[in-house]
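INFO  loader      accepted 1 record
INFO  loader      residues=459
INFO  predictor   begin
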Amino acid sequence: MFGLLIAGAVVAICGYLIVNRYKAQAVLICGGFVMMAVAVIFDFGPILPAKASTGFAWFDLFKFVDDLASKRTAELGLMIMVCAGFAKYMDKIGASKALVHVAVKPLKLLKSPYMVLCGGFLIGQVLHPFIPSASGFGLLLMVTMFPIYISLGVDRTTATAVIATNGCLDLGPASGNSILAAKYAGMTPVDYFVNYQLPQAIVISLAMTATHYFVARHFARKQEDQLPPPAAERDENVAAKAAGETLPPWYYAILPAVPLIMVLLFGYFKFKGIKMDINVALFIGIFVAMVVEYVRSLDLRKIFSSMQTFFDGMGVQFATVVTLIIAGETFAKGLQSVGAIDTLINYAQTAGFGKDGMILVMSVIIMITSLIMGSGNAPFFAFSAFAPDVAKKVGAEAVNILLPMQLTASVTRAVSPIAAVVVAVAGVAGVSPFEVVKRTAAPLAVGLIVVQIMTYIMF
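INFO  predictor   done
INFO  writer      dumping tokens
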């Protein structure tokens, strides 16, 4: 009980600091160290097993981080960094923009603004696995889909809300959260995506699409949005930027999909007995893009120079996502060291919670922390490490706990007014993030409910 009280206090303090924009990595690592220090002082047990220990308990705190950083950077971290580098390169050569522009063309054939909203949301769900950054994807849609919505009479806030939720399902083998979840579940990211994420994503997307339709009509009837001249001028600027944008040829739209197609064909279906992992597929995708760029420009210096974008993308991802994973797992180790997780599990089991009850409890924890932090990554990285142990103690598979946790984290993010994607798209549209989340709340609440229903049906 004492350990649980210490953990609760540390979690509350860390949450307060993160909400107030203290750096999440530093906060989580320090929080983990504080709890591990308490475990050492009160002799809750060793931080490291005897074989891995330095021989001095206080040095073991740092040895744990060293071992963790070495392991995560060499395996999981490299995969995440390569995915990010590929995404940055696709953006650099304009392939991401070409993909979105080709995908949204059918929307212009629809005349009903509400049907266009629904169609745009569904297209977003299909495109997001190819463009994993929620904020980057949202900003890209602001210069492609947003002008279409506005031209059909959709109010700016509703249009912005739909765009803010386009990346709410963190899907695909290129997603950092998906890669981490697959790691803890003991499977490949492709297996995790095809067999577990995809069935849920289809149902969740359809349910949220229907909800968006009725929410948009509800707010249209209320006519809450009055377009002042500066906002109308901003809309014209966004539309003008979209109209005047220089795009590469249409076939560039295929390039972002090359790695996913290859990893599904060879990594999942094992076509002609060929095996392929995500990193190999991404490197091949980069090579194909370089060849296409060279054939188009015949400028070898330009092609080689553009590769720096790939390496820069890898570096940025290490500085953000990989370090956040290390910090989150350090925090998780602290919670485990003081016995907080075991205590919670014991309480849940005493209260009669089985597998389904524990899935709900872990999802609620993730939902609350994601809403407060405005992030889908930080809470999932901090709590996902518990999933295998929790699952084992309630007689479930790790993926039974991880899948709803991961989807809950990503869905909840878009209902937080401090989430990066909400703030970014609201800033472009010139509307309040709080008004945006009023319109995202209902579709995302439906999404969260469907996550739990689908988890119950699947497992």
